[in-house]
Each structure stands twice: as structure tokens, then as C-alpha cells.
Amino acid sequence: MAVGERVPTTRVRPAAAPGRVHGLLLVVESFWRWYRRNWRATAVSSVLQPLLFLLAFGLGFGSLIATRPGAEAATGGVPYLVWLAPALLAMSTVQSAAFEMTYPVLSGFKWQRVYLGMAATPLTGAQIALGHLLWVAAKMTLTGAVYLVLIALFGGAASPGVLGSLAAAVLTGAAVAAPVMAFSASREDEGAAFNALFRFVVLPMTLFSGTFFPVAALPGWVRPLAWVSPLWHGTELARAAALGTGTAGALLGHLAYLSVLLAVGAWLSVRLFTRRLAP
Questions:
Q1: Keywords in UniProt for this one (predicted)?
Q2: pLDDT by residue (tens digit) across 107-124?
């Protein structure tokens, strides 16, 4: 090349921003790749722990209830295990959703900074937030399906309607995951508030949402606390699908409550992710 001759250059075009749906799927793929290699680390909390609840309450405690005269009247005339199984499915998704959207979300901002790496690409904060939420819903569907097989093996599935229970459980888990994700995205500390969340929100919601006994058995002043619980709405939907109970108006009310909670939580998460990941 002669002296003074212009050196040809290659112009590198910036990466095109993915479409809305494509961006969500890229985020889901990222989490799926990690989960495919590390699924054993979450097997205890997502499958084994709910199985222990099924054995302890469904088979153990249920065998004691079956010996009492008229016990099936409180469970709609079905065995306690069949009555309990859809509620345990909803409960397991709620517990999994609450955990998945606390420390892992804070870690994505503060410790491992996975979100910051994603934000360095053309992905938007909205795609990152909704993609993570979509991944958690997909994971709850997968682990819930495994749990549903275990329920059927132990005799807790009375009809094919339990497949509808899985859909209700995933919706309930997503309705809990979205606002918890927004709460976690607002934290700047080390996550000390998560202990209070589990102790004063998740645990009471598990105990007083009609999971192990009908809400009608609670004192009158406690019942309104159960009625505002998303787990109670999810439990009612899951049982209605599995047992063929409930009226159309009640089912629509449960669906509307969970859908609004999911929509509001997702909207808040998108706003907080967008603000926190802004360049």
C-alpha cells in the first residue's frame, strides 16, 4: 500500500433492538440456560418441600380426619387429600414465586448484576422485567406439572380438572410474583425487608387462605384477611377446577382479582426496572 493511500475501513453497525416479544424470549432463554445446568439447586424448594406437605397433611393428617364422622361434609363430600391437593398446588407456586422475586431480583441489580449486563444490550428495562416474570411463570408451570404427577400418584387427583388447577396455580403465583418483584426492585439495601415479607405476609397467607381448612372455620374478624389474600382466590379457583364447584360469578371475581394484581404488579415492575436500568 502506497504512502498516503487511504486505508479502507469497515463500518460496524450497531445491533438492532429486538422486537418486544423477541426481547422477552431472549430474557427467558437466558434464565432457562442457567436453570438447565443448576435445576438441582432448586429441586428441594420447588418439588420436595410441597411433596412433604402432601405426605404430612394429605396422607398423615387426612387419615385422622377420615375417622371422624361427618368429616367429609366440610370438604364438599370428597376425601381430605383430594380437597387439599389443589390448594397445595396453589400454595407451592405462591411460595416459589415469593422466593424467586426477592433475593434473586435484588441480586440482579446489586450482587451478580445480571440485569445490568442485559441492559448493556439493546434490551429495554421493560423487556427485562417482563421476561423475568414470564420465566418465573414458565418455571412454575414446569415444577407444578411435576408436582401434579406426584399428586396423582398418591391419589389426590379425582378428575382431569386438576389440569385446570395447574393453570389457576400458575396465575396465582404470577399475581404474587409481580408485586413482589416491584417491591424487590425498589430496594437499595441488603434485603433485610424480605424477612418481614416472608414472616408477616407469605406465612400468614399460607395458613389463613383456606389451604388446610375452610375459611368458614376461622373467626369472623379474621375472614376478611383471608378474602384479600391472592392465595385464597387461587385456592378457590384451583378447587373449582379440580372438584367442579363454584359459581360462574365467584370464579369471574377470583379471576378478576388475580388479573388486576398481576397487571398492577407488572406495571410497577416495568417502571422501576426502567428507572433503575436507565443509562
A1: Antibiotic resistance, Cell membrane, Membrane, Transmembrane, Transmembrane helix, Transport
A2: 999 999 999 999 999 999
pLDDT digits (tens, 9 = 90+) for 15-48: 566 788 999 999 999 999 999 888 877 776 677 7
Q: What phi and psi, each to the nearest 5 degrees, are found at residue 48?
A: -65, -45
* pTM reported for the whole predicted model: 0.88
Report the percent of the chain where pLDDT is more than 90.
57
Task: Write the CB contacts of 144 (distance below 8 Å, at least 6 apart in sequence).
Answer: 89, 92, 93, 166, 169, 170
Torsion from C-alpha of 162, 209, 261, 52, nearest 10 degrees:
-50
Residue given cell 404488579 in the structure block: 265
